[in-house]
Amino acid sequence: MFCSEKKLREVERIVKANDREYNEKFQYADNRIHTSKYNILTFLPINLFEQFQRVANAYFLCLLILQLIPEISSLTWFTTIVPLVLVITMTAVKDATDDYFRHKSDNQVNNRQSEVLINCKLQNEKWMNVKVGDIIKLENNQFVAADLLLLSSSEPHGLCYVETAELDGETNLKVRHALSVTSELGADISRLARFDGIVVCEVPNNKLDKFMGILSWKDSKHSLNNEKIILRGCILRNTSWCFGMVIFAGPDTKLMQNSGKTKFKRTSIDRLMNTLVLWIFGFLICLGIILAIGNSIWESQTGDQFRTFLFWNEGEKSSVFSGFLTFWSYIIILNTVVPISLYVSVEVIRLGHSYFINWDRKMYYSRKAIPAEARTTTLNEELGQIEYIFSDKTGTLTQNIMTFKRCSINGRIYGEVHDDLDQKTEITQEKKPVDFSVKSQADREFQFFDHNLMESIKMGDPKVHEFLRLLALCHTVMSEENSAGELIYQVQSPDEGALVTAARNFGFIFKSRTPETITIEELGTLVTYQLLAFLDFNNTRKRMSIIVQNPEGQIKLYSKGADTILFEKLHPSNEVLLSLTSDHLSEFAGEGLRTLAIAYRDLDDKYFKEWHKMLEDANAATEERDERIAGLYEEIERDLMLLGATAVEDKLQEGVIETITNLSLANIKIWVLTGDKQETAINIGYACNMLTDDMNDVFVIAGNNAVEVREELRKAKQNLFGQNRNFSNGHVVCEKKQQLELDSIVEETITGDYALIINGHSLAHALESDVKNDLLELACMCKTVVCCRVTPLQKAQVVELVKKYRNAVTLAIGDGANDVSMIKSAHIGVGISGQEGLQAVLASDYSFAQFRYLQRLLLVHGRWSYFRMCKFLCYFFYKNFAFTLVHFWFGFFCGFSAQIALDTSYWTFINHVFIWGSIAIYFSILFIMHSNGIFGIFPNQFPFVGNARHSLTEKCIWLVILLTTVASVMPVVAFRFLKVDLYPTLSDQIRRWQKAQKKARPPSSRRPRTRRSSSRRSGYAFAHQEGYGELITSGKNMRAKNPPPTSELEKTHYNSTSWIENLCKKTTDTVSSFSQEKTVKL
């Protein structure tokens, strides 16, 4: 009642800084988090409720109650209560252990220390004691304790940098900036303690990319957006300190709002056993009724003759009442048809399978000494029934490590390795890389195996020098020196870091920058370039350019970007080089490398001044400002001279391609759900062979509202199914069973390979009730589905959608905190011990270190667990029916008197004696016969000492063993071969079909001749983020230094006073550009 009143009351959140009493009246949640299921008071009732959801447990509880009635029980209640208590206790202990580790994890997080401003001084407080309205100090590399409004920081203009890997999986840094009025507070504790601003904002929600609020302070109001907020789960990077005011705490934070609840997971075998128990219980009722009727008839016809011997009084017991009591007596006697030992045995088998997973050396990652771990013992057989896998990208499929692999300069490829016959060979461990140790500032981890590039640099090839000079100048990287004097690069995207590092190792070292200059070291000589203009990246342009003036006074434009865009800007004289470079790009793309084209242009001084004047006018315009600027960019970025192309490897984890291929052959569909940009996800799809150029079509859903999304889905379905199909209206929801049958029929009619790519904002509309049927139908018909820019909650919603409407077993795999909600939602959650902490592992059912181990987990452990469990259940039910029906048959010979045919205690004792006793006697006699003791007593009768060793040296013995083995095995082998040939199982038929398809398929080439003109090559175009160029030229992210000498030319600053407003107005992605780009022909 209280919670509902609170939710109704909080239509907006009002928070006052440094005033706990004011904020307490709103009863906001504190910063303590709970991910556990139980506490000391609720463990027993909740756990018992969950356990008695198992029909068998409830059945045996009722049976126990019946056995306590002496009139109907011929068996002691002890035989039921002991195993029942044992099973419930074992399960409760296991559940309590699992929840203990959740409590331990929660306590570890809640007890982290944070500096909180209390009573005009900073005090160390535990995270769980932090309250809404408190002001917190964060230091570099610290986790953010709650959702904060950034007040001030150590960086100029109140900027700070955060890593959001736990929220969206991205490891590149994000910029957050404080309001100018609060950034003046700095680190002055007294001023911060007097800060009494009031924030009125939205209520807690799960939208990571949106925030709306107003700060009222000093009789003025200031609007707040997402750029002013630092979310819990972020890590402060490259910022010495910052202060923030707590807006949302604990369960109200956006991170926790996106975390799914811990759910009680049951396997399909459990549900099947529940159903079987119900049917068998019905069968038991029928047997009891039959025997009760028999007892009533027997009592009325024959039973009177036995009353004298049994000392029954006349009329004391009627035949009907006798039958009624007999019914319940037989219910007790025949209870072994579903013995409680079934669940004990199942749990023991599952425990054994869990140990098989833990002990599997082939799933042990030796580099980090991380074994596979089954964190639950109840889901093993479910691994063998997976139909859908939902995978994260960053850290799961990839290592998130960018490496400069190849380049094409002036029509020549560098980075390949050739043998003595000038034939291309693979790079092996024996091949020595280029030695960069002579360069003091080289990156020691960088490796390049082609020595020809170093030779071209030493020979002074002007094209090679210009190529590397461009890489060292055209970027948004920031440099700084650490305490040891080493040069450290702070990169906005890992792609740029790889390119600048490559130029650094080859002698063109980016040293420093100011808003007006860029300083690089060219083969040992410091050169300072004047930065005249910065033509920033955006998702429509898919390129970035800079205009610089060298010390000789030459003005040059350097540009890099997507080849499909940049090739259209080239001068006609580049036709031959364009053809060569395009072939090289196709080769690089065929190997899954992320590529971009490199070009430059010499500019005339007079022309540049005129263009720059027009750019200043466009920047000052109030109408159509962005369109005018874009037009000027297009005007100057033409007649470019092509230099070449780069190829960067977004390093996949080892064995990812083979794993995805094998899982696809097992008819398991893999969906990629990532928080990364659309182009990043597409490129990884190509690198993993989930997306190929041979696909019939790739559908891109990028609508901005529900109507557009529905229309795009309909068009995609028309292309996939053809015009002859009558499409179901999205507003009409079919019956679930009919929908499943229809989808299964349609799936069989799809002959081509299709892929679906959908963005986060489109997915939000597609998950609405009237559109999600269309989305699910289309997605399930596609071979590959990629959802990008999705929030953690959306990941869970996609999993729930497939679970609910496809009735399929799902598995979710991820490595970060942003994957926790989908891991909890799926039938099985797998966590990877990666770079993003252990949150995913702690929430998972299984964990290991590499994605490739998923293949063995499903196709080996999952298959065998399911196979063994099914065999066990079949045998177990057969055994119990055979044992129980003996008592049913015996009832016809004992006057239906509910007497047991076999004394269970006696039978159990005899069973153990014969089984264990026979084994013990056999081995005892075997050891005695071959011992020295028996030989010493009877040397003539037992001359067998050492006979095994001597006999095995005789050839005839081995011949006898061989003949015996062959004679024993051959009939079985011949029978099985004949059975496979004459009566093949479904698995045999599928295996034959796969082999036939493999033989019939033409050999695939590593260099595809035809390819879709996607932006698969454009590594830069999807790894960068708009706005960083304006941030650099404004100088707001640079610490104050001595002003460098200026050029005669006027510098452009892009109206630096308003760069933040411009950045806030621009959208992060214009994904529709990808669908338009598909029509571009090289």
From TrEMBL:
InterPro entries to which the protein is assigned, alphabetical: ATPase_P-typ_cyto_dom_N, ATPase_P-typ_P_site, ATPase_P-typ_TM_dom_sf, ATPase_P-typ_transduc_dom_A_sf, HAD-like_sf, HAD_sf, P-type_ATPase_IV, P-type_ATPase_N
Signal peptide region: none
GO molecular function, one term: magnesium ion binding
Membrane topology: Multi-pass membrane protein
Cofactors demanded by this protein: Mg(2+)
Binding residues annotated for Mg(2+), in chain numbering: D392, T394, D815, D819
Keyword Transmembrane helix: yes
Keyword Cell wall biogenesis/degradation: no
One of the protein's GO biological processes: phospholipid translocation
P-type ATPase N-terminal domain mapped to chain residues: 15-81
Residues annotated as domain P-type ATPase C-terminal: 841-901
Reaction(s) this enzyme catalyzes, per UniProt: ATP + H2O + phospholipidSide 1 = ADP + phosphate + phospholipidSide 2
GO cellular component annotations of the record: phospholipid-translocating ATPase complex; plasma membrane; trans-Golgi network
Domain of life from the UniProt record: Eukaryota
Listed EC numbers: 7.6.2.1
Binding site for ATP: D392, K393, T394, E496, F537, K560, R594, T674, G675, D676, R789, K795, N818, D819
Major location (coarse): membrane
Region Disordered, residue ranges: 994-1020, 1033-1054
Bilayer-crossing regions: 75-93, 276-298, 318-344, 881-902, 914-935, 956-978
Active-site residues annotated for this sequence: D392
Compositional bias per record (Basic residues), positions renumbered to this chain: 994-1015
Locations listed in the record: Endomembrane system; Membrane
Class of the enzyme per the UniProt entry, highest EC level: translocase
UniProt KW keywords: ATP-binding, Lipid transport, Magnesium, Membrane, Metal-binding, Nucleotide-binding, Translocase, Transmembrane, Transmembrane helix, Transport
Family to which the UniProt record says this protein belongs: Belongs to the cation transport ATPase (P-type) (TC 3.A.3) family. Type IV subfamily.
Protein name, entry field: Phospholipid-transporting ATPase
Organism, scientific name: Pongo abelii (Sumatran orangutan)
Phylogenetic placement of the source organism: Eukaryota, Metazoa, Chordata, Craniata, Vertebrata
Gene: ATP8B4
